[in-house]
Amino acid sequence: MNALVHLFELDRRIRAGEFPNAASLARDLDISERAVFRDRKKLVEMGADVAWSKERGGWYYRDQGFNLPTARLSEGELLAFFLSVEIARASGNAGFEECLQSAVAKIALSLGEVVSVDLNALRDSTTYSFSPAARADALLMLALQRAAAARQKVRMRYFTASRGQSSERVVHPYHLHFARGEWILIAFDENKGAVRCFNIARVLGHEPQSSHFERRSDFVAREFVRSMFFAEAGEQTFQVVVRFDAYQARYIRERAWHPDQVLEEHRDGGATLRFPASGLHEIARWVLGYGRHAQVVEPPELVVLVRSHIAELTQIYEENANE
After folding, report:
1. What is the extent of the structural domain holding 188?
2. Does this model's pTM top 0.85?
């Protein structure tokens, strides 16, 4: 699927007169230049007359009449796409639901008599439940994605929930990431001079700037996301170690909590989960959700944070008991 997306992106940029080259596409799509050349070769094999412009330093079509072949989807593929509409609705992303519904309708029309699917029957036979999701503005998402691709700065007004205040920021959009029902913009914040995470739902206003930016050479999207825990990232990555008793370990084993996790089994039926991550406040909330069934072992900073939460909760309940 990623290879297909890259091929379509190469075709789109050539068709738009952007004169893309292997270096720019490899940087923007986070792939190798060799992969870009493979995509170019695939276009040629499909009948595209791809030429190189010395003046513009990129590729263009000699024959603008070339079009990528129309895809013929199987019934299963169409059903999978339809399910994505239902998932968008259930997760609270109404803007994306509308876009997906439109896409499904266009695909269904283009297929003609290839498949016959009773979408109403499918809707009646499937349901979905998600944890509460933050609503995302589809137009804002599209604007940020375009800014990231074009290396265009964005001025935005952002509400910081932890401080209860809004402020003006100028950011360099790097990457969009979805976690636990929230869309996160990973961007370089000129105010802070560092890469930060911004919840899309808290962007109160945005305005693309005429100025452009160069993405930091040490930023790799996959590595940054791997350092996060759910939707939060911090400046320092820690080795997190959490021990679960026999009761809770049954459920912990059922999921993959982190791509680099290691699960150590214990004779008493319990288990210890280890993974590298930043964003200790998010991890603390996660651990506290398991109550007495989970205990933080490392790092010391997380142990202190969890203890402080427990102490504050104890004080609250003791005060209420005395009223």
Report:
1. 138-219
2. no
